[in-house]
Structures are given as C-alpha cells and as structure tokens.
C-alpha cells in the first residue's frame, strides 16, 4: 500500500504553459483514457494546445484547473467544474490524476475536496454531481471518501471497444458537506 500524502500538499491553479506537456502525455495514455471516458484515440500537440487554450478562456459555465503539488510548477492532474447552472445552483465535477505514481495516495481526494469547497463557497452552488465508469472503483471510492453519495446508474452509457459500460452517478449536496464535520 502506498503512503498517504500529507494534507495540504495539493493546490488548484489556473492552467499555464506548464500544463501542455503533461496534458499531452495523459491525453495519449490509453489506461487514463480507458478509465476516464472510454474513448481511445491519439491526440496531437496541436489538439492539446487547442484544448488548453479553451480551458484558459473565461467561462460562466465551466471552471478548468490544474492540480499541482504545492510549490511545483508542473501539474499532476486536472479537474473541471462543468455544466455550471446558476439557476439550479449545480455543476458536475470531473477529475484526473495523470501522474500514475501519484495514484492511490490521496492527491485526488485533496483536489476533489478543494473543488467541492470552491463550488459551494465561491460559486455558491448547492449540488455537485460526478459520473464514474462502473469499472473504475478507485474513482468511485475517492468520491465516497469526499462525501459523495451514489445516486444511480446510467446503464450501458458509454461505448468502449465494441461493448457498453455503465456509469455510476454520484451527488453531493451543500447541506451534506457542511454537516460532515459538525
């Protein structure tokens, strides 16, 4: 078992040029693709540069952030708070720890905790959802450890290599978040 990262070792930052190389590596990693959205394809430097450019543009309905170790310039992953709906005060969380040697050490949980805090305290939302492929139990456990509750299953939701994969739907309410330490 890997040693757990000390609390306070992860911070969320806006993406910079330092995100390009790691993002190119992660976007082309078949295992990460398999666990993320099931779509396996090759991304060019131009593809990733265009993605990064989109991610750094201000938007009212999505926040893209790099996951960094405190004091280090190169990210270890990325996340987004997407589909921000102010009228309904909700959004969707997506998160990838791209550096595999960082998997299972609590960095994703710290990043998700920061993102949840941002969604509730800064964006003033009341609900966050997240979707996880059913064959990605590590991500499901991460969400549960942060406080998300499994709400349902989207059966055969993702097409992957000729077969269909279920997605698990998780949700977290502001009231649940504020009561967790009370």
TrEMBL record:
Residues 10-175 form the N-acetyltransferase domain. It comes from the Bacteria. Transmembrane segments: none annotated. Keywords: Transferase. Pfam families: Acetyltransf_3. The keyword Nucleus does not apply. GO terms for molecular function: acyltransferase activity, transferring groups other than amino-acyl groups. This is GNAT family N-acetyltransferase. The lineage of its organism: Bacteria, Bacillati, Actinomycetota, Actinomycetes, Kitasatosporales.
């Amino acid at each position: 078992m890997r040693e757990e990262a000390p609390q306070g070792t992860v911070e969320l930052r806006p993406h910079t040029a330092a995100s390009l190389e790691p993002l190119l590596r992660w976007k082309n990693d078949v295992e990460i693709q398999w666990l993320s959205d099931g779509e396996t394809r090759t991304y060019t430097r131009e593809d990733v540069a265009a993605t990064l450019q989109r991610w750094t543009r201000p938007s009212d309905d999505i926040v893209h952030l790099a996951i960094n170790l405190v004091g280090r310039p190169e990210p270890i992953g990325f996340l987004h708070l997407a589909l921000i709906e102010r009228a309904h005060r909700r959004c969707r969380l997506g998160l990838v720890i791209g550096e595999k040697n960082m998997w299972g050490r609590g960095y994703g949980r710290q990043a998700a905790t920061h993102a949840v805090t941002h969604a509730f305290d800064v964006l003033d939302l009341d609900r966050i959802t997240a979707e996880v492929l059913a064959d990605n139990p590590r991500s499901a456990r991460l969400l549960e450890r942060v406080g998300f509750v499994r709400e349902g299953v989207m059966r055969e939701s993702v097409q992957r290599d000729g077969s269909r994969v279920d997605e698990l739907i998780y949700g977290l309410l502001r009231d649940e978040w504020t009561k967790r330490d009370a």
